[in-house]
Hints:
Elements: E1 2-7, H1 16-24, E2 27-32, E3 48-51, H2 66-79, E4 82-86, H3 88-96, E5 100-103, E6 109-114, E7 135-140, E8 142-146, E9 152-156, E10 162-168, E11 171-174, H4 182-199, H5 203-212, H6 214-236
Parallel strand pairs: 1-2, 1-3, 3-4, 4-11
Antiparallel strand pairs: 5-8, 6-7, 9-10, 10-11
Amino acid sequence: MVSVLVVQHEDECPPALFGRWLTEAGCTLEVSRPYAGDALGDLTSYDGVLVLGGPQQAEDDTVAWFGPLKQELVKAHADGVAILGICLGHQLVAVALGGRVEPNPRGQQLGLLDVGWTAEAATDELVGPVATPRRGVHWNDDIITRLPDGATVLAQTPAGEPQAVRFGARTWGVQLHPEVDAAILRLWAVGDREAHAARGIDQEAVLVSVGEASDELGDAWRPLALSFAAVLGAHQA
């Protein structure tokens, strides 16, 4: 069995759909919840690492487990362990490897956005199978503003904000949320309710649009989980 360590940062940010798809593909998942006291362990002892999203800021050194996690990510990256970061996880990988993450000067990315694949995506081992027109759920205030050395942008918004990055031969990150459904987003919406109201954002319309697109999103992003499982399986073999 292919082993995957899932690093979760908050109860309301579980592996959800992505975790289910990996399990269906034959992966064995071990979920570490360091915010609840779980030890991170040695990331190099797993075939793969999935680092999830959360409300924290990737450069916030007051988050107790971020320092040790970044150190472990550097070791796992150097050791060739396959790594996939989602949203905050994507940002943590970038910072760990020498990049920079800051609040998006254009404001929060929210709801269903088109994924702007670059030419490099088509031949990428992980995202190549999904590098065709599709939408992804975004719910983030921060973005990568400086890439680590050697990183390759695989998708970006029209404004040039990275949506998917290959940080090395077997290390990737995606800013979007392939793992979520509308029920999870409703939990996140509570914390942003006042901010969205102040900006005139119709939260319910955003949530309804994601719910109505559930089949589309499953078809779009289940292949990414299967591709990650295939990368892990090939390396194990």
